[in-house]
Design brief:
Length: about 675
């Protein structure tokens, strides 16, 4: 099944079972907290007046006219107020024909309440008021903890958004500065950002130089140097310089807004394991009712005391509440999402955690992913002083906007800051540039254009041209008097972290594959330098998805790309990973986004996927295995050996299983995926 087909199935499933997964729709941690506090206050007098508690603690409760009505009245308030969320949730589940956790809780508290009221009105037996109260308290506590846990896992970026400045320093047409609301900014505006201020909007520096702390985005605390042309991202903190930026994105288009959207999508997306857990909760509902009713009948036949029979039935319903099962997957995915963000990986689809566990191939787009997508000088061979050759070439090229010219100028500045000024500079379309430096006429451009006689070329320079051709580099020649004196080989620069990214994948038993539209020589060179054995050259954008399909015949495939032409392959792959969080294409096409453009994030994501899957399986095994043992005990199979579970003890044990599941999920954070 392809990624896109898989997403369609997931979407359909989500629509079919939406009611079940919205059991907390309209709820908040504060709502459960408030109801818990009120319920605990109501529980205290119920416990005090309970006959069973009086026997256990050997005291006599005070007695006065109407004191016998205090417990049933408070229990009624508690049942309606404290149990209200569960009763409403059960109605929603039953309407959707998807009984689950809310249904089980509601059945348990309703049975306890109705039987207790019946006892109060004269039916023989012992009431369950205090068990009812403690059960509701524990359930409210569990749901409050659940919502707090899930909410806290995604709150970091929400808090960051709140900390963004409300105003920006707008530069007016006359050069004056006015403070305006950030919401009033438009693309094309100019704003000033002063030292220490938080960047309010995305934009490109047009004046000034500074550094920026982008830890919120990349996880890297080291400030990033920013010069003219560099991007400043909303949410980052400006360093020591004053800069003017040209607003490039506003509103929902900003990188931070897109990140928030990613997190929101991740929080609402469903996983295969979550689907399994939800189905298990539904099955458990039928199992619990199917066991509870026969338990009641059997004990009514065996034992003359109907209270004991009802107690067994209620305990079965309490112990079977799939609270731990309901938490088993959400807590793991919530923690995994947070861990991913802390490691520079944003999760668009939680299901990616499962699909990433058994990836066999990682196919990389070359340009912009394994390489930086910009030219750089990879070699300089010269018959004159190398720095002089660079200086002259840089002086001729410094007025050109061509990427090759920019690379030569940058290399010249890196080696020598005082690049001379060329005069009489003339560009020859498709060939190169001529000009005068220190009264000498020079040419820089294609070797065949620079030299009249290529046969008379210096052997060292000829070898440099041959090696550039073999590697797939772009050769640029510098010459005078129609003779070449220097050869510059230019190539797309390999990212410093690409080698580590490839080696880490190999260590994990995953085969890296490079896919590029570049020539065979370029692909062979880059693949060789990175240690990639399998590569595909001269691949058109439409053909990348076909290569993914071919690889899928051998195993699951992750595709890593950075732009528009990679979208089909990102969608076709079992796991789509986009480099960079700044484009809508990356957001819409990928499951995961590496926000800091670092390909080593791929290995981190896959290691986290394996860890996530392991924790999910552990939690599911515990949550379901626990019920396999607990339900029979609740039904009374251990009575002959003195093991009797009360409804309250059943609720306590159920809550203990929830704590174990939560602790196991939280233990993920102690594991490093770097």
């Amino acid at each position: 099944m392809t990624h896109s087909a898989h997403d369609s199935e997931t979407s359909a499933t989500h629509e079919d079972h939406g009611d079940q997964h919205d059991k907390h729709e309209g709820h908040s941690p504060e709502m459960f907290r408030d109801r818990l506090l009120v319920s605990v206050l109501l529980t205290v007098p119920i416990l005090y007046f309970s006959d069973q508690i009086q026997v256990w603690f050997r005291y006599d409760a005070i007695s006065f006219f109407g004191s016998d009505l205090i417990t049933p009245v408070l229990a009624t308030i508690l049942f309606v107020y404290g149990g209200g969320p569960f009763l409403k949730g059960a109605l929603a589940e039953l309407r959707a024909r998807q009984p689950g956790m809310m249904t089980l809780i509601s059945v348990a508290i309703t049975v306890s309440y109705v039987f207790s009221v019946a006892v109060t009105l004269g039916f023989p037996g012992k009431d369950f008021y205090w068990e009812l109260a403690t059960l509701i308290d524990i359930m409210l506590l569990g749901h409050w903890v659940e919502m707090r846990s899930v909410e806290s896992a995604s709150s970091a970026l929400d808090e960051l958004a709140k900390l963004l400045p409300d105003t920006a320093h707008l530069v007016n047409d006359d050069g004056s500065i006015t403070d305006v609301e950030v919401s009033q900014l438009r693309v094309g505006n100019r704003i000033v950002i002063r030292p220490g201020e938080q960047v309010p909007i995305d934009g490109d520096i047009i004046e000034g130089r500074t550094s920026a702390n982008e830890a919120f985005l990349t996880g890297e605390s080291k400030p990033v140097t920013k010069d003219v042309g560099a991007e400043m991202v909303a949410g980052s903190i400006n360093g020591e310089g004053v800069v003017t930026i040209h607003v490039s994105r506003v509103g929902d288009d900003t990188a931070l807004s897109q990140i928030m959207r990613l997190v929101a999508d991740a929080q609402t997306s469903r996983s295969q394991y979550q689907v399994l857990a939800d189905r298990a909760a539904g099955w458990l509902t039928f199992i619990a009712i199917g066991v509870a009713i026969p338990t009641l009948i059997v004990w009514l036949i065996i034992d003359d005391d109907p209270t004991f029979a009802v107690t067994r039935m209620v305990t079965v319903l309490v112990i079977a509440c799939p609270h731990a099962l309901g938490l088993a997957i959400p807590l793991v995915t919530a923690n995994a999402t947070t861990m991913a963000a802390n490691n520079g990986v944003l999760v668009r689809n939680r299901e990616a955690f499962e699909r990433g566990r058994d990836i066999r191939f990682v196919a990389f787009d070359k340009t912009g992913t394994l390489t930086e997508g910009r030219f750089g000088v990879s070699a300089v061979v010269s018959s004159i002083d190398k720095e002089t050759a660079l200086s002259i070439a840089g002086s001729l090229e410094q007025n050109s906007e061509h990427p090759i010219a920019a690379a030569i100028v940058q290399e010249a500045m890196d080696h020598r800051s005082d690049v001379p000024t060329a005069t009489d500079v003339t560009a020859v379309a498709g060939e190169g540039i001529t000009g005068t430096v220190d009264a000498v006429s020079w040419k820089v451009g294609k070797p065949e254009w620079v030299a009249d006689d290529m046969e008379a070329l210096d052997p060292r320079l000829r070898q440099a041209l041959d090696e550039a051709d073999e590697r797939g580099d772009t050769p640029v020649a510098l010459g005078r008097d129609d003779a070449i004196v220097a050869v510059f080989a230019l190539a797309d620069q390999i990212r410093p972290s690409a080698r580590r990214a490839v080696s880490e994948l190999v260590e994990m038993g995953i085969t890296p594959v490079m896919v590029t539209g570049d020539a065979e020589a370029v692909a062979r060179t880059v693949a060789g330098e990175l240690g990639i054995d399998r590569y595909h050259a001269r691949v058109r954008p439409a053909e990348k998805s076909k290569i993914v399909q071919e690889l899928q015949t051998e195993g699951r495939v992750a595709f890593v790309g950075d732009g528009i032409n990679d979208a089909p392959a990102l969608l076709e792959a079992d796991l789509g990973i986009a480099i960079g969080a700044g484009t809508n294409v990356a957001i819409e096409s990928a499951d995961l986004v590496l926000v800091d453009d670092d390909p080593t994030g791929v290995a981190k994501a896959l290691r986290l996927s394996r860890l996530t899957r392991s924790k999910m399986v552990q939690n599911l095994v515990w949550a379901t295995g626990y019920n396999v043992i607990a339900i029979p005990l609740a039904a009374g199979v251990g009575v002959s050996v003195g093991v009797v579970l009360s409804p309250a003890m059943g609720a306590i044990l159920m809550s203990l299983s929830t704590v174990i599941v939560a602790v196991n999920a939280m233990s993920m954070r102690r594991v490093s995926v770097s």
